[in-house]
Amino acid sequence: MMKKIGNRGFVKGVFLLFVLVAVVFAGISFGKPYYRYYKLGAFTKDFMKLDSGSIGEYGNTGGLRKNIMDNAAELNVPLSEKNLEIKIVNKFVYVKATWSETVDFWGYYQKKLDFVMEKDY
């Protein structure tokens, strides 16, 4: 006796596979901006630790600004110079950077993510 395809769970399996692919895609799409945020913060903190003497003593933030902007460009973070703020107070260095990214799900749904990175050393 021949069985129909639907009786063996073929449609259910295909639907489950489709849902699984959609969930993985959503996770990767949301994960990338947060990964870039974490990596830029880690690079910034590392550079502040390595070069804190020359930054704090001389008040020269050009090297730090250039390094942060280079790392942002390398990580594809849409950070502009006007959204990067570096302050030196009593030999402490404070860095604040803000940017936004939009996550797009096949053109049906778009979510804007706002990031604020604040580091001090």
Walk me through the structure.
The chain has 121 residues and is an alpha+beta fold. It has one domain. The protein is built from 3 helices and 3 strands; from the N terminus they run H-H-H-E-E-E. The chain has a 3-stranded antiparallel β-sheet, covered by helices on one side. Helix 1 (10-50) packs antiparallel against helix 3 (62-74). The model has no long low-confidence stretch (mean pLDDT 85).
Could you give a short description of this structure?
By secondary structure, this protein is of the alpha+beta class. It is built from three helices and three strands. It has one domain.
Topology of helices and strands:
Layout: H1 10-50, H2 52-58, H3 62-74, E1 84-89, E2 92-105, E3 109-120
Antiparallel strand pairs: 1-2, 2-3
Helix pairs in contact: 1-3
Query: β content, as a range?
Result: 25-35%
Unreliable residue runs: none
Q: Name the shape in a single word.
A: elongated
**N- to C-terminal distance:** 76 Å
Number of strands: 3
H/E series: HHHEEE
How many independent structural domains?
1
Alpha carbon gyration radius? 23 Å
Helix content: 40-55%
Overall pLDDT: 85
Give me some keywords for this one:
elongated, 121 residues, 3 helices, alpha+beta, 26% strand, three-stranded antiparallel β-sheet
